[in-house]
Amino acid sequence: MPVVLRLKRVGAKGKPHYRIVAADKRRSRDGKNLETLGTYNPHSVAESQVKLDRERIGHWLGVGAQVSDTVKILLKKQGVALR
């Protein structure tokens, strides 16, 4: 099963809030996910904009999960090492 780390959109219309999730690549963007790894709020102040579970992200990267372009940018800004 191909796994990808990507954003899942939640929140009200016009006020998006995102969850960083590990999901099956074949599922829809807002469909069922395997695990929630963090959150991203683009309307928050910079310090609390991204919250991550670094240990679980490291696990998924270790077993070969792919990373979407947007999540890759967020992880690099937070200092998570990508292989």
Concise account of the structure shown:
This protein is of the alpha+beta class. Helix content is 22%, strand content 37%. Strands 4-3-2-1-5 form a 5-stranded mixed β-sheet.
Keywords:
alpha+beta, 2 helices, five-stranded mixed beta sheet, 83 residues
Molecular structure report:
With 83 residues, this protein is α+β, with helices and mostly antiparallel strands. It has a single domain (3-70), classed as Ribosomal protein S16 (S16 Ribosomal Protein, Chain: A, 2-Layer Sandwich), CATH 3.30.1320. The chain has 2 helices and 5 strands. It has helices at 54-62, 69-77; strands at 3-12, 15-24, 35-40, 50-52, 66-67. The protein has a 5-stranded mixed sheet. A hairpin with a 2-residue loop joins strand 1 and strand 2 (15-24). The two termini are 20 Å apart. The mean pLDDT is 91.
Q: How many strands? A: 5
Any idea how many domains? 1
The quaternary organization reads as single chain
Q: What structural class do the secondary elements suggest?
A: alpha+beta
- Considering the protein shown, what is the CATH homologous superfamily? Ribosomal protein S16
Q: What is the second-level CATH architecture?
A: 2-Layer Sandwich
Q: Which of globular, elongated, flat, extended, rod-shaped describes the shape?
A: globular
Report strand %: 35-45%
CATH class: Alpha Beta
Order of helices and strands: EEEEHEH
Summarize the main sheet: 5 strands, mixed
Rg is 12 Å
CATH topology: S16 Ribosomal Protein, Chain: A
Low-confidence parts, pLDDT < 50 over ≥5 residues? none
Biggest sheet, strands in spatial order? Answer: 4-3-2-1-5
Mean pLDDT: 91
Amount of helix: 10-25%
Distance between the termini: 20 Å
Output the number of helix runs: 2
